[in-house]
Amino acid sequence: MHHHHHHPHVSSPHATQKRLKFCINDHIDILIEILKRLDGRSLGVAACVCRLWCTIARNDSLWEDLCFRHVSPPPSGVRAVVVALGGYKRLYMVCVRPVLSRLGRRLRLGDSDRVGRVWTRDEVQLSLSLFCVDYYERLGRLGGGGGGSGGGGGGGDTSAASLMFLCKPVNV
Amino acid sequence: MVPYDSDGLAGSAPSSSSSITKPPQIDGLLAGAGYKVPSSELRHVAQRLERLETAMLNSASHQLSLLASDAVLYNPSDLSTWVDSLLSELNQSQPLPSLPSDLSDLVPNSTALDSSWGMEHSLSQQQNQNISQHQQNQLMVVTALEEDSAIRLVHMLMTCAESVQRGELALAASLIENMQGLLTRVNTGCGIGKVAGYFINALSRRIFAPAGSISGVGSCYTYENELLYHHYYEACPYLKFAHFTANQAILEAFEGHDCVHVVDFNLMHGLQWPALIQALALRPGGPPLLRLTGIGPPSSDGRDSLREIGLRLADLARSVNVRFAFRGVAAARLEDVKPWMLQVNPKEAVAVNSIMQLHKLLASDPTRNPAIDIVLNWIRNLNLKIMTAVEQEADHNQSGFLDRFTEALYYYSTMFDSLEACAHHPEKVLAEMYIQREICNVVSCEGSARVERHEPLAKWRTRLTGAGFRPLHLGSNAFKQASMLLTLFSSEGYSVEENEGCLTLGWHSRPLIAASAWQAVPDVEPALGVIDNNGVVL
Question: Which segments carry the region annotation PFYRE (chain B) (predicted)?
Fold first, then answer.
């Protein structure tokens, strides 16, 4: 992967040399700290930069930060539950992002969820509950029988049928 | 489209099939706008207006200015003549188009519809011609026809229901035929056409099927029922609202208890319980031991569906570290369940959860005690912490058939409207089938077969307080959660309202489903002597 360099305006070749030597990929801890502070969309984009970034971005703890960044303190015991139900990245993709964007759009017209939107404990709870329903429905599909299978509402593996309403665009 | 009420049309549907000479009816809707147009000329006028529009679009500018200065309508009662005169002034060179050929097959045989529908007579005199243009215009004319037909359809439905109530089955049968003819002229894909179709179907079952052959819910339909229920759950928010609201109430009631037992009157796929299990897992102080008893119909195909659902829920509970035990109770009817089957432990807190089940107990059998009283009685004595009841907010248990029918027509029209506004779901049609079954049961069944005996919240309040329960107010948490849930749906017509501590979910301020919570009033023992339930002093 090539790193795109802007030619610095400083004339001294020494300074240029020093700048060229720094490569973020050599400093993974800094990279992680930066990625931790990104919003969801940027994190997704970052995952497309290179294989290293992709691996790092897949780390569930990054997504955990994303989910509960603005809820403090994060409710205890949540991690075990979320991990058991499919992990934070999935929680974000399937529940948190649609919930935030829909509710955010309603409450604050114009603000995107990039602008440090604080979400409430209630929204957290609701997302977790919906996430649990999603897990349960997937259980039913994989396990076969029990109904809920057979064409499953056209949803792919990424979302359970009953959560499809969260994935549709909103006519606000 | 909610059916127009009868104020829209002057004159009502005639109830006799003998030939009638009627004074020319003035179309009521246009009369409201100040134009007096006889109903028989409506089609003619619509057509001419369209031609006028086409002519105006195609005409040269000098003709238009002429039109603009001369076109003053002096006599509103003669709209058709005025339009004709305008048309002739514009002097079209193209041949006068008459009815597009597509519409010609909408012209009914004049024998099928009796003379009471005067419009059709003038229509049958039109000639068919092939028209190459007017694609858009066709649509406009069809819409005018449609609305007209839709209104007539509703009127005929009411008339038919009334004749059924009066026992005039022959008349009802002929009305069914007429309505089926009218249906071809209406868009049955959506709106009033679709709802009318279902009601016509239900009425015809009632009229044409021999008595007693319509069973309510047969055990052979278990798998089908579950499938339809699942799609109903997915396609619209009513069941989700029910589940989340009930769960919130149960969660709050279980605070501080370490052994809890939930009795679900209709387990189905157990979709309500994952959210409760998760909430219990995360509650401060750790999760309790959760027992779930799921009641459901026995499966006919050898699968033990109750057990399968139980296993799935146990799997989930294990993943989130909640101690869980499941028990299934298979019973064809809720009144067959006896309290000993539930094996309630005296130390545990019990919650009874009934999602649209209590109304099925309202069929009254004169030879026995009403089932509802028996069941409510043993619920009370179960060491009950909370009973959550969600019911349809409608009065479908009235004794008069016509009243029931009318109420059902409005209720289900509203529900179908709300369904249409939901995000398009590929299997929405299955959700509609679920609703259709309810309609069929309300309209075409009687006696013990009619299980969909919905009653409104006010009646349930009276009944439950009389049976020894007192209401538990659903808190603001439940309301907030319900509102949030609603916001997640794409359509904006849903509304959550609070009604004396109960929550209702409705479409455009018509409540369709009501959720309430109850606890048992402890029996009061008087200081002097003990009086048992029958009023006898022991």
Answer: 350-441
Q: Is B349 helix (H, G, I), strand (E, B) or coil?
A: strand
Contact criterion met (CB < 8 Å) for B488 and A98: yes
Asked whether the predicted pLDDT for residue A111 surpasses 50, the reply is no
Flag whether pLDDT at B130 surpasses 50.
Answer: no
pTM for this structure?
0.71
Token readout for A139 is 């259980």
Check B233 against A140: CB less than 8 A apart. Answer: no
Task: Pick A129's closest partner by Cβ from B234, B275, B423.
Answer: B275
Q: Tell me if B274 and A164 make a contact (CB, 8 A cut-off).
A: no
Tell me if B275 and A148 make a contact (CB, 8 A cut-off): no
CA B421 to chain centre: 14
Closest-CA residue of chain A to B491: A171
Residue B283 to chain A, least CA–CA distance (Å): 9
pLDDT band for position B487 (cuts 50, 70, 90): confident
Question: Considering chain B, what is the average pLDDT of its residues?
Answer: 78
What chain A residue is nearest to B309 in terms of C-alpha separation? A146
The DSSP secondary-structure symbol of B467 reads T
* Tokens, residue B284: 């401060």
Q: What single letter denotes the amino acid at residue B210?
A: P
Nearest chain B residue (CA) to A126? B481
- Nearest chain B residue to A124 by CA distance is B481
Interatomic CA distance for residues B432 and B435, integer angstroms: 5
Residues of A in contact with B484 (CB under 8 A): 99, 103, 122-123, 126
CA distance B277 to chain A (A): 9
Identify whether the C-beta of residue B438 lies closer than 8 Å to the C-beta of residue B488. no
pLDDT at A169: 44
Give me the residue from A77, A128, A161 closest to B234, CB to CB: A161
Helix (H, G, I), strand (E, B) or coil at B520: strand
Among B103, B142, B143, CA closest to B124 = B103
Hey, which bits of B271-413 come out as E strands?
289-296, 324-330, 349-355, 384-392
Structural contact between residues B505 and B512, judged by C-beta atoms closer than 8 angstroms = yes
Shortest alpha-carbon distance between residue A36 and chain B (Å):
25
Cross-chain CB nearest to A145 (options B282, B303, B425): B303
- As a whole number of Å, the end-to-end CA separation of chain A is 42
Tell me: pLDDT of B220 over 80.
no
CA proximity to B516, closest of B499, B530, B496: B499
CA distance B38 to B313: 65
Token pair of A83 as six digits: 């991990």
